[in-house]
Amino acid sequence: MQNKMRRRRHSLIMWSLAVVLLLASFFDAFNSVGLSRRVFADTASERVSTAEQLLARCREALSWKMKAAGAATEQELLDAMAARAGRSPEDWYVLAMAKMGLKLDYSKYANALFEVCKDPEPTDVEQYRRYLTARAIGYEDIPGTAPEKLKDKGIMSAIYRGYAVAAGRAPSSFVYSETQNALIALKLADGGYALMGETSDVDVTAFVLQAYGALLGAQGKNAAGAELMAAVRDGFAVLGKRQSADGGYASFGTANAESGAMVLLALAAFSDEDISSDVRNSVRARALIAATDRFQTAKGGFAHALSDGVASMENDLATAQVMCAYAAYASYLKGTSGRLYPVKAAAEPVVPTTQRPTEKPTGSSTEETTQKQTEESAEETIQKQTEASTEETTEETAEVSTEETKEETRESSSAETIVSTEASTASTETTENSSTKSTTIEDLNENTPSAPTEGSDIEKSEDDSSTSASTVRWIMTAVVAGLILLALLANTCSKRRSKMTYALILVLGAAALIFVWVSKITLPEQATQKQQQTYLERLPAQGEFRIEICIDQRVEGEEMLLTPRLVTVSEDDTVFDILQRVTMAYGIAIDYTKSMVGTVYVRAIGGHAEFDRGAGSGWVFLVNDALATTDAGSVKLSAGDVVRWAYTLDLGKDVSP
Amino acid sequence: MRVYLHSRTWFLYFVMVIVILMTFWHPVLLLISLESGLLWWRILKRRLTAGHIFAALAIIGVLTVANPLISSNGATILFYLNGRAITTEALAYGFLFASVLVCTLLWCVILSDVMTTDRWLNVCGRRFWRTGLVLTMVFRFFPLFSKQWQKIREGQEALEGGSPVGLKETFRMTKRELLCMLTWSLEHGFVTADAMLARGYGAARRTFFNREKYGAASIGIALAIAAAFAAVITAAVNGGLEAQIYPYVRIHMDGCMDIVGSAAFFLLCHLPMISHKVIREERRMRS
Amino acid sequence: MIQVENMSFTYSGAARPSLSDISLKIAPGEFVLLCGPTGCGKSTLLRMLKPELTPAGERTGRVVYKDREIGTEDRLPEIGFVMQMPEQQVVTDRVWHELAFSLENLGVTSDVIRRRSAEIAAYFDLEKSFEKDTNALSGGEKQQLVVASTMIMGCKVLLLDEPTSQLDPIAANRFFLWLEQLRREFGITIVLAEHHLEEIYGETDRVIYMDNGRIQAQGKPAQVAHDLLVGGDAFSAALPTVSRLFYDGKSGRDPFVSLREAKAAPDYENLVAAAKVKIAGRERVSAPAEAGTAVSLSNVNFGYDESSPAVLNKLSLDIPAGACTAIVGGNGSGKSTLLKVIAGIVPDKKYGAGKVKILGETRAVTEKKKKTTAGARQKIAFLMQDVSTLFTEETVYEEIVSGVKEKVAAGGEGFVENFLRENGFAALTDHFKQHPYDLSGGEQQMLGLTKLLLRDPQILLLDEPTKGMDAVAKEEFAALIAKKKANGMTIILVTHDLDFAELCADYAAMLFRGEILSKERADRFFADNVFYTTHKNRALNL
Question: How far is A492 from chain B (nearest CA, A)?
């Protein structure tokens, strides 16, 4: 009897242990599926930190260049390089600076470039290169040059043509296929590419892959076709085979930085949706970065090759190309586009400043006209944006990640806004432009989508545009029906069941169902939201102005919920209205209460709630660095105000200066 | 009658478990407490009916669905309902809250089952004999008052000619019954007071009839419970057992401290069950 | 052992003294019976003997216990006191705790308590119910528990103040037997104040008859009985039936005090014959002609919990109109449930089948009666066991007029006083301004009846109305019933008190395990029964 009891007790404990362990492990798996954004943010943050490291290297290299050129600021350097715009490898620096997201004024450089383009007999490659550089720094097509014209038949021109076509105005797919077939035709037997001969060259192969990446990004996987995908796979396979043991690449026997940079650019040219991970993993990216790091000298620049295993002599081209590669790869890691040259042109080309008849703004009439112009152009830009976005959605349905499209529209829209405001010839506005542009790039960096954790294979189902409001409604109906059923069953099984309880359950259930079908459901990823964002960032019309807003949850090591950006608001918008609009546009949840008298109190933004970090913690907002004393629903703003929503830890004392 | 486990040990056990449950809203702890609670359910010869499961699921479902409607806290927005954001984190919070509620309910039912009136008296013991006496009288007079209330209601119904119809009538009747009940209990309280006086209440310093002895098992298990509780608290203080819902759902389950804390809680919940004498005694009490 | 010397006592604020010049001596081991009409001062005298319970007031004279004077500040756990209501006297929730409670109060150690409670449980056969919940005990068991927990203190004197008034006769019987056992085996002194004298009168050593705060007669039971019967005192109605029945003032013999004694007498049969003649000679109001059926039940099943057996089992009963029907039966036979079913007061949780037909109106058994519109004449009035459940107002007058305000207003000046006087409740007029709870038990019953009768019912249901009544009050009550009967009211009486049932009922029915076994004319009913019958019939059955 004792033994039986003991055995039973032991089995009891075993059983319970097993159950608990099983459930815990299941929970762990559940956790790793990552239903919540940024769960196990470690892996995502890992990527972000690597990107940060890369960008840090770029900055170091840039500071070397600045010292070497004798420039005190980046702007000085840029303007200094403008003298040689379009004619020297220093273009690469400009590309790198643009990719790094520096807030600079590229107008001088752009004008210089434009002048150079007046050169009557450029080679194809030169022409394309200048055009692409201009696009990269946000300036539009130079009139008179049609990228479709192809004179040379060499591989370099084919590559640049591929880029240009991808960056140009949406050409017909015939042009795409013609361009990419031209490139594919140049594929060698081993799958790689070379300037001449039958042995594939690392640099050229990488360059071709970059062009493939641009073409893929412009058309989408479906339109690009299987041949292109096969070529991409083969190309990466070759690069993978050619990778040295230490991770770097050699060209004609010498390990050099440029080749590695080109391969890195090739990797960055594709997003995660374009190519599968096994193709990408043909090249060991980490080792490559580590190898390339070794080319960095003590001063921060990069050497072309190592002498005695040490990098000692800085090389302009090497530095510039590595900077580009790092900046591009950093962008890729953060989930934004890693291509140096943008793809997809804006709807209409606009001539840069020097071409337009300049009229000094004298008196109100010109202001009116300029305002009208800005109004019209603002309207046009909105229209064009919607056109562009709808075009994009139709052509990029294969892409699951909508971040790409967001980024593209943002890039193009920022280009639009930049250029349209250019027309009013206000220098202040150009700084605004660059700030918006740079902020947009920073947006892309900051607004990290849920980068899938390694090994997980979930689709971001909630971002899927196929989830429509009615699906959500049906789901909710199903949930409510399930609950009603449960409640009825529970009531039936209970001892004291009365008709009242049944009636109550049915009445409440009916009310819930009515509520579900009557309420308004909006999905965060709908086109209206994209429009909201772009609408917020448009140029102000009459009665509107722009203010800067940011939401800072003040957590160590985390980026702001909403980095500072300019939004267009009208005169009667209160701070709370703006907050609501902005958070809805950027997918941030706010929890607020409206009292009966009409005052609003914001309890939580983006998951950071009041009292989460102590008794005095909560959200306050500052207007022009002055802590607000009234509620957000009663403060109105004026042009140029800076609104900052900050999470304070002691009732506002630590955020106000 | 000799009791194996002292009432104060039982009381300590339940208090520790419920306190941990309510302080740490951690899924692993909830699962452990659910599992041991169901074990106790079996030991106490209670049946887990379908009705219980339905009720629990209904509660959890309703609360999970209701929380996002009232709180828009959270980083991941699923959709907007009438302008309010419905976030995954709010759903998770609702679910966790409801689970904690259901587990606590389960344990409270177990507590009320195990802690009989005798046990409550022994928890008060000699030190708090006044509380113990008040508790005993409450246990004694509560059923009596219920019955008396029933009698009063019958009497009033008989007088009025039937049960009340309509809300106003019912309200009026209930008010009268309440007043009658109060007066009746006050009046008859004198009799009880007299009876207590007649039986020597206040004659000398009151002692306490202690029917339970602190056996080795009681002390041992009580110490083990305290140690396990301290272990859980230490693990929590050192960073384990963290279940953060806002802003992102981040539930720690793999860390060393988590495992220590969970293991300590597991031990804590199963401590009285380790001794088969305790189980036997409880089952015998409920035959 | 106890000596009372010239004791006089007046309650503070009272006009007249409750006790006037009482002197008595109680020897150790004596069984003393205190009897007398309500308000004679028995309870007050008993409380004088227990210092903890002595009420506040003016006191002259002294009480001496074991050669020591008792002051009001003394504490004497040696003297035990048992009161009327068993429910209120039980303090704790468990039997063992109740036993231990007294000893805990005295500061006794745990070991001693354990031993003492164990041994008293063994002696009183409480072992099985040692762990039981006190709420689950019956009234008689509760009262026994109270005595046991008093005895556990080691009492030498036991004072009992009407301990069986709330118990039914069967439980009362058992209680008295128990008392006797205690006295026989331990020789404790018992002072018992009682109304219910049938069983206990013959067993006592001494009877003290009090009236108006004075001792009117003292001595052996037979002697006091003789004095009372000779004097023609109204209280003699309270004497045992045997004493009254077989007494004739002619033979110098003392009245019998027990049936055994009577049957032992040589001329028993002659006495029986004489008694029968006497009874037959008494004018007996014959039952009226069949006036129809007031209430009729046919094949009624009724129960409370689905899992427990039915309380009323295929019950069929016809209650004739304009007559008084007594329904008798043992404990648990379902009498109260039957009345509730007739009145339509059923709880929410019940099950049953069958119909009740009341004055032509049919109603399902399980149907809860809803309140009709105010002013409509209520057909049924139900007087429950505990009358105090009816009282909700602050003064007696308000209590009387509550609910019938229109009637009182329409009746004009003095309507209430006239009504009271008509029904023999004139005593209530003195107490109009008092709180209902301040009235005595009998007066409370009068008040309850007044409230019911004011609603002019056609059927009156009475549930144990004679609990705690003395013999005089019983007779008055019987007279009231007779008067109401004459007015055409149907009366259904549920009682344990068979003597009273015989006194006022026309018909009697026996309820046994939920079924009506027999229903016939009352006198024939009781005459036919052998065991469960009145004392008179028992005495007259040869």
Answer: 7
Closest residue on chain A to B93 (Cα): A607
Determine the Cα–Cα distance for residues A96 and A302; give it in Å rounded to an integer.
14
Whole-prediction pTM: 0.65
Place of tokens 């037959």: C280
How many angstroms separate the CA atoms of A390 and A402, rounded? Answer: 13
Is the sign of the CA dihedral B119, B122, B128, B131 positive or negative? Answer: positive
Shortest distance, CA C349 to any CA of chain B (angstroms): 13
Chain C nearest-CA distance from B174, in A, is 11
Looking at A182-339, which runs of residues are DSSP E strands? 250-251, 254-255
Report the residue of B119, B159, B206 to disrupt the C interface, i.e. the one with the largest count of C CBs within 10 Å: B159
- Give me the residues of B, 42-71, that contact A with CB < 8 A: 49-52, 54-55, 57-58, 61-62, 65, 71
Q: What's the rounded mean pLDDT across residues C165-187?
A: 88
Reading the block at residue A123, the tokens are 């080679």
| A583-606 mean pLDDT | 87
Contacts with B157 (C-beta within 8 Å, 6 or more apart), sequence order: B163, B164, C345, C369
Which residue among A19, A486, A603 sits closest to B58, beta carbon to beta carbon?
A: A486
Question: Subunits that touch chain C (at least 3 Cβ pairs < 8 angstroms)?
Answer: B
CA C296 to chain B, closest CA, distance in angstroms equals: 19
| Residues A256, A257, A263, A265, Cα dihedral to 10° | -160
> Nearest CA of chain B to the CA of C464: how many Å?
14
Q: What is the per-residue pLDDT for A277? A: 77
CB B276 within 8 A of CB A3: no
pLDDT at C496 exceeding the cut of 70 = yes
Can you tell me the distance from the alpha carbon of C152 to that of C121, in angstroms, rounded to the nearest whole number?
A: 10
> Is residue A455 pLDDT above 70, yes or no?
no
3-state secondary structure C311-338: CEEEEEEEEECCCEEEEECCCCCCHHHH
Class of domain A47-333: mainly alpha
Token readout for B237 is: 């203080």
Instruction: Compute the count of residue pairs across chains A and B with CB atoms less than 8 Å apart.
Output: 154
Q: How large is the average pLDDT for residues C31-48?
A: 88
Lowest-confidence range among A350-364, B11-25, B231-245, C147-161?
A: A350-364
Minimal Cβ distance to A523: which of B79, B82, B88: B79
Say what the alpha-carbon torsion angle A141, A147, A153, A154 is, to the nearest 10 degrees. 30
C-alpha B44/C-alpha B279 separation (Å) is: 9
CB-CB neighbors (< 8 A) of A41 in chain B: 248
Mean pLDDT for the stretch of residues A314-320:
87
Dihedral class, residue A222 (left if φ above 0, else alpha if ψ from -120 to 50, else beta)? alpha
CATH class of A525-648: mainly beta
User: Between C365 and B44, whose confidence is greater?
Assistant: B44
Strands C293-303 and C490-494 come out as unpaired
| Domain boundary assignment for chain A | 47-333, 457-521, 525-648
Q: Which residue of C lies nearest to B170 if distances are taken between CA atoms? A: C371
Amino acid sitting at position A438: S
Contacts of A515 (CB under 8 A, 6+ apart): none
Q: Which pLDDT band, with edges at 50, 70 and 90, does A3 fall under?
A: low
Q: How many CB atoms lie within 10 A of CB C294?
A: 25
Per-residue pLDDT reduced to its tens digit, C282-332? 656 565 566 788 888 888 888 887 778 888 888 888 888 888 999 998 877
Q: Which residue in A24, A36, A590 is closest to B88 by CB distance?
A: A36
Q: What distance in Å separates the CA atoms of residue A204 and residue A195, rounded to the nearest whole number?
A: 7
Mean of the per-residue pLDDT values of chain A: 72
Q: Quick check: A32 and A40 in contact, CB under 8 A?
A: yes
